Amino acid sequence: MRVTLGLGIVFVALLFPLNALLGRTSSLDYPLDLMLDAKAEDASASVAASVTLHLDRPMEENRRKRVTDTLTYTGYSNFVTALRSLPPVGTITLRERTVQIRYAREERENADDDRDIHVPAHGGNPDR
Length: 128
Fold this sequence. Notes:
It is built from three helices and eight strands; from the N terminus they run E-E-H-E-E-H-H-E-E-E-E. Helix 2 runs antiparallel to helix 3 (76-84). It has helices spanning 18-22, 61-74, 76-84, and strands spanning 2-4, 11-17, 32-41, 46-55, 90-94, 97-101, 105-107, 116-122. It has a four-stranded antiparallel beta sheet with strand order 1-2-8-7. Strands 3-4-5-6 form a four-stranded antiparallel beta sheet, with no helix packed on it. The chain has one domain. A hairpin with a 4-residue loop joins strand 3 (32-41) and strand 4. The protein is α+β, with helices and mostly antiparallel strands. It is globular and about 40 Å long.
């Protein structure tokens, strides 16, 4: 399992093989609730945390295309605005802080591969 936590950065991105984590080969059942233990360290410091991921469903493909096209053709700031306009599809909770998930995508390269789920979540001030 690979979990990347961007502390103090606008996005928290989680990417992990779900079949290996859940021991399943069929499609995932939603809503999906996972408790993830994350750890980040470098030469001088380390941090560990338990993160709760609740996902009601992956986002609809037409919405995913709209926001990724916005990023591709009009830039990051317009992408963030388009992302904020989407309805939430889940939450990420770290201790008592919860952020909404507005982008969640499940994919795999072929039928024999584990599925990956991509979940960026905005952790900054939503009024900015």
